[in-house]
Amino acid sequence: xxxxxxxxxxxxxxxxxxxxxxxxxxxxxxxxxxxxxxxxxxxxxxxxxxxxxxxxxxxxxxxxxxxxxxxxxxxxxxxxxxxxxxxxxxxxxxxxxxxxxxxxxxxxxxxxxxxxxxxxxxxxxxxxxxxxxxxxxxxxxxxxxxxxxxxxxxxxxxxxxxxxxxxxxxxxxxxxxxxxxxxxxxxxxxxxxxxxxxxxxxxxxxxxxxxxxxxxxxxxxxxxxxxxxxxxxxxxxxxxxxxxxxxxxxxxxxxxxxxxxxxxxxxxxxxxxxxxxxxxxxxxxxxxxxxxxxxxxxxxxxxxxxxx
Length: 308
Description:
Distance between the termini: 7 Å
Number of strands: 0
Low-confidence stretches: 94-102
Order of helices and strands: HHHHHHHHHHHHH
Number of helices: 13
Shape: globular
Structural class: mainly alpha
Radius of gyration: 19 Å
Largest sheet: none
Mean pLDDT: 83
C-alpha cells in the first residue's frame, strides 16, 4: 500500500522541488499540463470501450455520478451557508473585468470541451473496435498511466511556482476557512455516499477528494479503480463547476463564501473570472487562496485514499 502510494506521489513531489524562474518555461509547463489532461481524458474514453456492455456501464456511470453529486452538493452548500452566516467577507463593487466571460456559455466552454474530449475518445475507441484493433483499450490504459506520471510532475512544478507564498495563504483567514469547510464537508459526504454507491469507505473518500478539480480527479481515480469510477469522479466534479457558474452570480452578493467555495479548486482559475466580475476585486484574493489550498490538498488526499 505504502509503496504504491509513493510510486505515484513521487512525480508530484519531484516536480514540486523544481524551481522555475523563466517565464517562457513556466508557460511551457502550463501548456504541458493542459495538453496532458486532454491526452489522458481522450485515452480514458478509449479505454471505456473495452468494457463489456458499454451502454450499460455508461448508464451506471451517469447514475453513480448523479448520486454522488446529490450527496456532496447539498452538504457543501449547507456547510458553506453556515460559514457565510458567520463570515464578514462581503462582495465589493463589481467592476467591468477585461477578458471576463460575457455569458455563462462562454465561461463554461473550457469545461464542456474537456467533456467533449472524453466523448471523442469513446468514439475513437468504438471505431478502433470495428476495425479489429481490440488491443486499443488496454494500450490506452497503459499510455494513460505514463502520461499521468508526467502530468503529476508538471502539476507539482506548477504548484511550486504559482507565486503563492505560505505567509499569504495563512494570513487570508477567509480563504483558509472556505477551503477547510469545503474539504471537510466533501469528505463527510463521500463517507455517506460510499454505501449508496456500493463502494468501500476509502473509495467514497477518494471520489469526494477532487474538490471540483475534475480534470485531475477523474484521471487519478480512473488509474486505480478503472475508467467507470474515473468517469464518475470526472463528471461529478465537472457538474460541480457548471453549477458554480450558475450559482455565483445569484448568491455572491449575499453569501460570498458560499459562492466562492462551491467551485472548489476551480475558484483559482476557471470560476475566478466570474467571481471577479460579480463579486468585485475584494473577493479575488480569497478565491485564489481557497482554490490553491484545495488544489494542493486534492492530489495527495485522493492518492492516499486510493491506496487504502
